[in-house]
Amino acid sequence: MAAITQNTNNGRSRIRFLEDQTITNQNPDAATIRKYIRVPGWAKIATFVLYQTSSAGSSESLQCIIYLPSIETAAQFAAPDDTNMVALVTGTAITGNGSITQTYTVGQGAAAGSGSATLDSHQGNPTALPPILAYDLITTDGGNDADYAFKFIVCFS
After folding, report:
1. Sign of the CA dihedral with 131 first, then 151, 48, and 32 last
2. Residue 56: its H or E element
3. Distance of CA 140 to CAs 27, 91, 106, Å?
4. What would the pLDDT profile of 106-140 be if each residue is shown by its tens digit?
5. Residue 122 to residue 136: CA distance in whole angstroms
6. CATH number of the domain at 5-9+16-156, please?
7. What residue ranges do the domains of the chain occupy?
8. Averaged over 140-152, what is the pLDDT?
9. What is the pLDDT of residues 3-47, one digit of tens each?
10. DSSP the chain
């Protein structure tokens, strides 16, 4: 069991910029960014946007997973841990080079959609929006030569 780090951009705005990453010559084979965010009480839908601005390498991929973290043992304002996390949306790993945008929606009325490894796509889960969401951004690289540039935001409505 490990505590999940909170994304510190937990302002009150509808749109939050969560990650802006540039990775050059990734080594080791895989790396994961795992954080959580608190959902505003008024929000019914959370739409995450993963925008890969560029990538290069011999066998790289970028994947996003949105989770309901375990909060059953945490105090009301304590950090959730990664025990018993439930994946709400498991994004298709992006394997295409260049500019690719994937969106992931969690909340009432969200369309399921289908992912694509090489094209812009959408995936979703039409479930009630929980008060806390966690995310993984996973980069993999089979050749220790991958370069990535990507941005990750969430929009609440």
Report:
1. negative
2. strand 45-56
3. 9, 14, 25
4. 999 888 888 888 899 999 999 999 988 999 999 88
5. 17
6. 2.60.120
7. 5-9+16-156
8. 85
9. 777 776 666 678 999 999 988 887 777 889 999 998 999 999 999
10. --BPEEPS---SSSEEEEEEEEE-S--SSEEEEEEEEEPPTT-SEEEEEEEEEEEESSSEEEEEEEEEEE-SSS-TTSPPEEEEEEEEEEPPPB---S-EEEEEEEETT---EE--SSS-EEEEE-SPPPSEEEEEEEEEESSS--EEEEEEEEEE-
Tokens of residue 54, six digits:
């560029």
Tokens of 2: 């490990």
Whether this model's pTM surpasses 0.90: no
